[in-house]
């Protein structure tokens, strides 16, 4: 399992782009994780699925509300990662009003999630492989803090916890 001091696994994540520009076309665009984190401080939070109750009511809204505070703490970007496709993540981002605040990064095949070792197997419930709920602060591709939730909990991966860590690291 991924731990503090580890480099993020190589691979790609996808993001649905609403407006063409900066070398990105409309629709899903793939981003190389190593290139996207190089020289940046990224607040990453992951969750089991788009449009799910805790994720939509608490997890994403907390990061959207604290986006300016993260910037003030030196965080360049906030990423929400979920094992959903880029179209679903794009629709969820519109619903949650994340534009300009949180990048909704799709891990459609769960490749990134599997490489981190932070997999949540919800096959028995009909959801397949998903991500555990967690947050982490990443500097230049290296994990500086990692907060993994116990199953069914939402206590340590919230925006306030990661923001406090961002201001102290």
Automatic annotation (TrEMBL):
CDD domains: PRX5_like (cd03013). The keyword Oxidoreductase applies. Residues 2-168 form the Thioredoxin domain. It catalyses: a hydroperoxide + 2 glutathione = an alcohol + glutathione disulfide + H2O. Keywords: Antioxidant, Oxidoreductase, Peroxidase, Redox-active center. The keyword Nucleotidyltransferase does not apply. Its EC number is 1.11.1.27. Thiol-specific peroxidase that catalyzes the reduction of hydrogen peroxide and organic hydroperoxides to water and alcohols, respectively. Plays a role in cell protection against oxidative stress by detoxifying peroxides. Belongs to the peroxiredoxin family. Prx5 subfamily. This is Glutathione-dependent peroxiredoxin. It comes from Roseateles paludis.
